[in-house]
Amino acid sequence: MSSSGSTYGDIHRYEPARESTAAAIAIVLLAIIEVIFVFMFTFGLVSGWGLSDTGNMFLGGVLAVIFIDLAFILALYRKEFLPDVVIVKKRRRKWEDVYIREDQMEGTDFGAGAWDQVKRAVYPYYKR
């Protein structure tokens, strides 16, 4: 569904989420696996597995699996349960005038207009 409005904040395109049951079941199963790996990591830390070389690598691997599992959960949730919405935004000025202007092509004197340069560096949309 799209609208013809072009004012700031109008919804340009709205596609509802699919909300499939298979994705919900997959998220629940991945969350259960996440809890198991978090418990295993916590148990390993309390038990002192990280004191040996192989135990430390094992804990690092378990921590990596925890974050990869969390990434799959978030990706499934974003894809299946969040709507795709595009809104109209204000156009911003391009960044080329912040870095080099035509009067500065040959370089600038050191210290000349230093306060203006600081203001342009801090606030890129500063107007003369």
Automatic annotation (TrEMBL):
**Keywords carried by this UniProt record:** Membrane, Transmembrane, Transmembrane helix
Q: What InterPro entries does its record include?
A: DUF7318
Q: Name one Pfam family in it.
A: DUF7318
TM ranges: 21-46, 58-77
Descriptive protein name: Uncharacterized protein
The top of its lineage is: Archaea, Methanobacteriati, Methanobacteriota, Stenosarchaea group, Halobacteria
